[in-house]
Amino acid sequence: MPRLRACPLVLLFAASLAHAAPACKPGQPVEESGFVKIGGIEQWVTVSGDDCANPVLLYVHGGPGNPTSVFGAGPYASWRKHVTVAQWDQRGSGMTWGRNRPGEEVPLSVEQIRDDGIEVTRYLAQRFGKRKVILLGSSWGSMVGIHMAKQRPQLFCAYVGVAQMVGYRENMTTWGTVLERAKAAGDAATVAQLEALGPPPWTNPRNFGIVRRAVRKYEAQTSDPTPTAWFQVLPHYATPQAKADYTEGEDYSFLKFVGWKGDGMASTTDLYRLGTHYELPVYLVQGKEDLLTEPQVTRRFFEAITAPDKALFEVARAGHDPNAPLIDAQKRVLAERLEWRCD
């Protein structure tokens, strides 16, 4: 698999951040991908935009273990004229997994991925000559992202959380909500499945997958579908090895997230423990039909936080997964709240 692919602005990703000198002429497009030394290992970073002088937006992917770099700019393609979109395959995911295959005994933590993300941010700021970047995290990426924002607010001009995870205990209301939906629909099969699991916490990692499938089933009835054009895998990631790396990384990250006995990273998450004051603007985008990170949970968290500026955007016809209404709402945040700027 090629180590580097960069066009039209050639990128020689450095072995360390110390060598990442700015190389950008205003008006010059940027399309870059390669490995960067982050947190002691080589991690995959991609950058895409119409003008490398534009603000940089770092997208923190969900899962864990579901990097979206395989789709290129995907749903964010229309943002290219306003911002340079950077993506990063987190430790244990995608191309980063393929480069560094940790053993099952190697731990994975929110704090470790947070620190990696901060290092990626510093790399991007130095690479493109920026004081700050825009930080956007979705689903699991919102848990990582908000930890990054809390730890190093001076690196970011704003934090945008999409389908914001709040904490294991708070977000485990999903099981009861979906069970009630299934009962109301007379869906005996789903009711039987969910009742057999019993309420969380669970010790069997398969239980999370059963609930997730039920969530998708019922969200599909009330939200707009995701455009298939957004998620066409680029040729670079479509090789047998790249596909295997993606799947293996997804499995590894999921098991580290839920744990074999309900003792994974998920069980340690609780944003209230971080404190509810943030030293940068915080904007949350929430699908009204989201059954995984439910609106009432996000709303309570939003009401508890203080920040220089904050706003909650609740989106109709949107669930947990990205679709046109959810992406449009994110674009409105960047256009209306930030005016596509990052000062």
UniProtKB/TrEMBL annotation:
Coiled coil: none annotated. One of its GO terms (molecular function) is aminopeptidase activity. It catalyses: Release of N-terminal proline from a peptide. Its EC number is 3.4.11.5. InterPro entries: AB_hydrolase_fold, Hydrolase_4, Peptidase_S33, Pro_iminopeptidase. The keyword Hydrolase applies. It holds the Pfam family Hydrolase_4. One of its GO terms (biological process) is proteolysis. Keywords: Cytoplasm, Hydrolase, Signal. Residues 83-321 form the Serine aminopeptidase S33 domain. One of its GO terms (cellular component) is cytoplasm. Residues 1-20 form the signal peptide. This is Proline iminopeptidase. The lineage of its organism: Bacteria, Pseudomonadati, Pseudomonadota, Betaproteobacteria, Burkholderiales.
